[in-house]
Amino acid sequence: MTWMDEFWRLNAVFLVILLSFSFQGAHCELVVSPVVPTLVKAAAGSTVTLAVSFSGAPDPTVTWFKENLPVVTWTIDSSSPPDIAPNYRQVLRMRKDGSLTFVNVTRNYTSNYTMKMTKSGLGTAVTYFTLLVFDNIQNVELHLQPDPVKEGIDDFTLQYVMSQGDVEQQMWFFNAKEIKTDSRYSVEQNSLVVRRPKRSDTGQYTVKLENPFSTVETDMNVTVLYGPDEPILEARPDRPFYLSGDSLSLFCQAEGLPQPTAVWVFGGENLSHDGVLNLTNVQTSQGGNYTCMVLNGQTKEQRQKNMTLNVYERPSGNPVCSVQSVNRNTGLQYHCLWWGGTPLAWLSFPALSNTSSGAGNFNLTVTTSDNLNRKTITCVAVHPVEQNQCNVTASSPVDFLPAVRTTFDLGEGKIVVTIQCVSEASPEAVVSWSKGSEAVISGSTYQISNNTTQLEIRYYNVSSFLLQKYACTCLNPLGSRRREIQLRGPSISDFRLFPNQARTVVTLTWEVPPASVVTGFDIQMKGPNLPSENHNGSQIRGSSNKYRTIQLKPGSARSADVFNLDPDSTYRFRVVPKARITEGKPSEVQILGPGGGLSGPAIAGIAAGIPCSLLFLLLLGGFIYLCVYCNKNKSSRQTRYPVSRAVEKAITAQPDSTPHNLLTGGLKSPPDYNRLHQVLFLVKHMGGRLPLFVDIQ
Description:
Elements: H1 3-27, E1 31-34, E2 39-43, E3 48-50, E4 52-55, E5 61-66, E6 69-75, E7 83-84, E8 92-94, E9 100-102, E10 111-119, E11 123-134, E12 138-145, E13 149-150, E14 155-164, E15 169-174, E16 177-178, E17 185-187, E18 191-195, E19 203-211, E20 214-222, E21 224-225, E22 232-236, E23 242-243, E24 248-253, E25 261-266, E26 269-272, E27 276-279, E28 288-295, E29 302-309, E30 311-312, E31 320-326, E32 331-337, E33 346-348, E34 358-359, E35 361-367, E36 376-382, E37 387-393, E38 403-409, E39 414-420, E40 430-435, E41 438-439, E42 446-448, E43 454-459, E44 470-476, E45 479-485, E46 493-499, E47 506-511, E48 520-526, E49 532-533, E50 539-540, E51 548-554, E52 559-562, E53 571-579, E54 582-583, E55 589-592, H2 600-608, H3 614-637, H4 673-685, E56 694-696
Parallel strand pairs: 2-11, 13-21, 23-30
Antiparallel strand pairs: 1-4, 3-9, 5-6, 5-10, 6-7, 8-9, 10-11, 12-14, 14-18, 15-16, 15-19, 17-18, 19-20, 22-24, 24-27, 25-26, 25-28, 28-29, 31-32, 32-35, 33-34, 33-36, 36-37, 38-39, 39-43, 40-41, 40-44, 42-43, 44-45, 46-47, 47-52, 48-51, 48-53, 49-50, 53-54, 53-55, 55-56
Signal peptide: 1-28
Organism: Lates calcarifer (Barramundi)
Transmembrane segments: 602-628
């Protein structure tokens, strides 16, 4: 470039300036404009200026407004200082060109500012500014609500707090990926809301806060707790059922955070706490529903699931069959029972029905017919492990013999006679009772047992028992049997005497006819006196020339012992049966003494067994008679000595708990065990030798 070019360039600039001044002077319009951007950002504590320029008039008047409040007024180039509002004098300054300066500005000066410039005759010029004052962002923290976060709740919120600072922009990130507001996330003024949290929302959340003068990031790890999910159950080995004695393991697990604990429960009892239940030698009692309960220990949420364990086992024992009466003895109910086992056995009576059956315990009712009497019916029992069966036969009642027992009720003072009628039958026969032509029902005099087999009769006098003939009828659906009973007064049969070898102790035995009413016995003796005690304990002596009672025995007694007998004396014994205060006919008399070694029947038996002539028999009979006569005379001349022991005397009648023999009715009577007992007792006391005794009528 030459100096000529430079010259012309300067002339052009001068010309433009000259024309510019010429144009302004010609129009004379007041113009004000910002020199800096109208949005001004400043850090707190700094100095910032809202710079303007104006043209069109000298010395205009300038007023600055904060929002609608005038804070500074001044006429440019005036010798007077600017008029600054008192509360703003520490910060605000007015420059010569009308610009407004903030010294050590604070956050409370953030506002909208308006500059109005006026000049008389030229109108008003206006310009606008926005001042934003920012503190540095410091000490930012994130808070979680609620804490902990559980899957399925409505939402959770992350909110930031800081000790100071102004945020111009916030940004949220999840695992370094920016979060935008959508259907699941909502970015709000100072928080992030996550709606319907899921387990996948577990991770790191970061907030980034910015203003023109500082940037801060802070993060938080959020864990969404969940579960337990539905438990997964498994049995190993996996089988549809197990046999008794097998071993297996049950497993239970469920997803969750934290990992849920699993507990196996059976029958209300916790069996395992680690999710594994080992069962060895499993039994049928261990079959059933096993429940796995899973628990999230932190959220307290729990779930459960059931598993059915099938344990099969053969039912115990064998099937049991029975039959009973129904419908008032008009029908038969066949019953088959094979209980236990898993599953229950399936039971049926094919001979009675092809369509009816049941499990474990089966009843089948049929109408009674003659062809069912003594017919064997089979129950077929079907089980997966085994098939089995049982039989039952229904039968009508058979002939029977009633049994009679007599006792004495001390409380009421009554004689109690119990008659028992039992007939073998299937089903068990029901017994009905009658006296004469009238039916017997339970009341004060008559009591029928719950099973109807016993009739109890109560009277004060024995004669009342003898007035009526009683009958019992045993009945079931297949038939009936009837027996009559005629009670008798007190009586004795088969009275016997058994002395010991020394003849100082004697045992008396007797029997009672089957239908006799007996409540006690008087043991009577005639002969030399026996030592005894009266009720005061003093010694007394009885008369020897008449019968006297030496013992009292209850109705159940069938024997009595008499001690301290004189072996050289003769004693006579008899037993008097009694029904309360009524005495029956005394028994036959038994004699014990030196002359009583052989009885008449015994002598006749010996004579019949010796093949001798009639003369020899006569001589032998005379010899025996002479011996007996001499011995009696000798005994009558001997001195009698009292016996030192008292005679046993029973004063209290005891209840008879042993029934009498069965009544005869055309059937064979049972063996006479009393006679066998007497013989054994005799052999014991006589050293194995049979005694000789005399029966006197």
